[in-house]
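One chain given next:
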Amino acid sequence: MYSRKDQLLGLALVSPSILAVIIFVYGFIAWSGRVSLSQWKGLMPDYTWAGLQNYLGLFADPRFHIDIRNTLIFTVLFVGGSLGLGLALAILLDQGLRGEGFFRSLYLFPMAISFIVTGVVWRWLMNPAQGSRLSGLNLIFDQLGLDFLINKWHTTPQWGIAFIAIPAIWQMSGYTMALYLGGLRAIPESLREAARVDGATEFAMYRRIILPLLRPITFSAMIILGHISLKVFDLIVAVAGKQIALDVPAIYMWTTTFDGNFYGRGAAIGILLLLSVAVLVVPYLYFTLKHEAEL
């Protein structure tokens, strides 16, 4: 047992961090919540009470409807694509591949760069120019005789946001690969051998045994990827700039707050983003802590 002196010393050491978190995290969240309930529009602060007016105005705004639609499309494709590709890469590396260390580093490399860098690179790769101005992937398709694959990428009407998910999947699939590979290596080889002795095919073994055992990892990866997709901003701006067709809540918040000086509505968007992320993260933390307490 620690003495009271040790406890007080430990509390004194962590108290600056606790104080900083209270002020710069929870304090600013509370302040943003107050601003979201005000009529602040313009450079001069205006804390006149507006109630839920900013929130009701958002849900009646057609642009916010586009934001929700784009976020749903991006989230489904990004999370699903990252999980699927990451799992496939992990299974391939788990087969005792020669040069595994090289390929593992190669797949993880995109995660080491920021979404801004990824966006700049993929902006060139997904250049929507047609005719004599082909470049990037469209030029490669043209040279290979795959003209049917040439398209307008993120400038495609209605579904442009779906193509923004491609660079996001490229960047984060290596991360999910690392998670799945760690899970695969934790499964005892004796369990696989027992399944093979019982006559199970490799496909049946993965479907009935391996994948169910990887569910906790899948759940964790979905939470992490999901919260990234909900607050995506830099990747879209780097690839296509700020366009209504590719708008998401984070971009809407930026343009509303800093371009339009409508701080009340911008704070309301920020609070809604915080709540949407909390819906994913809080239950995950609760069940994780509960599981650890039961061990």
Summary: The longest helix spans residues 4-36. The two ends are 21 Å apart (CA to CA). The mean pLDDT is 90. The CA atoms of residues 253 and 290 lie 35 Å apart.
